[in-house]
């Protein structure tokens, strides 16, 4: 009889019933660990009397005092500061995870074990009661690395997560944990890029969204195409050098598929005499508008975002439609007006185009020009906006060739491999896009994605296909017409009604922002009073607590947060300020800065939002 296993299994079954069912533990003997779930490590007493373990001649815990070793590991993990999530790469007998659960019961614990036998064997030797009592605990048994990354991101992100690993304990799944480290490194890099992007472009996103605000009710959404593709394949045209190979076939590709061009590829399509069915433009910067500036594509539908550069909405085309906004301002209106259709973004317009095909229900998605690198050391398709700008600005001291070389060797370049396993020059940014596509291929196994060029950066999960083979498919004139004429069934309201709903929401928005501003102003005044009058500090702290509750309860706080400083920016602001050594006064000084920044953000909105619509 094993009372520890019995006790742990009862708690495990109560906390993780689906896992219990998956490993068929519901009907197993609760007195003994089933043979099929026993790992091969050896368990023995340490010098302190606690159990320790050994595998392949290596100790998995200290041979003297495993408990003290676990405490040291937890202390080291918490040194980074602001850690609220602990990720354990395997746990052997679980001492580190148990110690963490007891010391920090409010934190999130993620136990990662690719071989479930190791976790269940530990359950038969050590009482896991504190672990199963933890408020937020995830047991990732035999899961893909992408799922682990997703768990950490949902728990608060890698900036607040500690990785706790004893390499002897994780040695039994060395390849898995190495792959996980690479996935985490990519996710951290993505987080860093996202934070940098937010810091750099948040005010631009806000300004553009405010100026385009009426488009939120005037324009239809991509949702009208949701799951309407049937058997239609999609061909997406990106602006990599290999797009040249597809240009002579565009007319035939269009007759056999839904033809989608990213903004950077439009000029090349029009020069080839073909207007794509859809154009996707998701970048809010002026330079993205320049890719379509001066062009027109009268039979194409432009898919864009509320935060696009305002001139984008003057582009001559058949129709403009919106994807759901990724920013709080647009999301606020969509709650009342109806969802436009969410398209995820991996940082590139090509990823948004792929997701449009996915939303439409396409089961086959083909890419031309998705090189994600520099095949034969080419940087862009001939005649692209990028190449034309290089020639237009070249001179004797800075010729176009020099700009091309600088783009090739400018930032973290490295060699990877194409679909034929030949070397291709790429960089970290493009490998990040490749990782996005790789994860989507894993997530949507019912969709098959192809590259028309074997010279492009190889994306795991993608296949190659020749254009000539694709051209052997039947023409799909009728299916294309039916898809392209899809109507929006998501909006039962008339345009007149939509306009009325929009105006009502808009008035509430202005009132809500003004109310937030008044709260921030009151907070600033309470901080100043607390700094100046020690006798009033207790009352001022009480006022601030009430004000903070009202701000956090506001429906408009997320809208204001877009232009509120990021954590890094706030730290920089604090580092430039002088604070009192008195902790209470210092608290008021910090709070005053936060209220001031909130007021500044709301002023920016009110400056850019039209007073009347």
Write out the strand line-up for the largest beta sheet, numbering strands in chain order: 8-13-12-11-10-9-14-17-18
Described by strand count, sense and barrel closure, the largest sheet is: 9 strands, parallel
Number of helices: 26
Gyration radius over CA: 29 Å
Amino-to-carboxy terminus distance: 76 Å
Number of strands: 18
As a percent range, the share of strand residues is 5-15%
Q: Which word captures the global form?
A: globular
| Share in helix | 40-55%
Overall pLDDT metric = 90
Which spans have pLDDT < 50 for at least 5 consecutive residues? 390-398, 400-410
Structure, described:
- The strands form 4 sheets. Strands 8-13-12-11-10-9-14-17-18 form a 9-stranded parallel beta sheet. It has a 4-stranded parallel beta sheet with strand order 6-5-4-7, sandwiched between helices. The protein has a 3-stranded antiparallel beta sheet with strand order 1-2-3, with no helix packed on it.
- 39% of the residues are buried.
- Strand 4, helix 4 and strand 5 (108-113) form a beta-alpha-beta unit.
- Mean pLDDT is 90; it is low at 390-398 and 400-410.
- The chain is an alpha/beta fold and 613 residues long.
- Helix 7 (145-154) crosses helix 9.
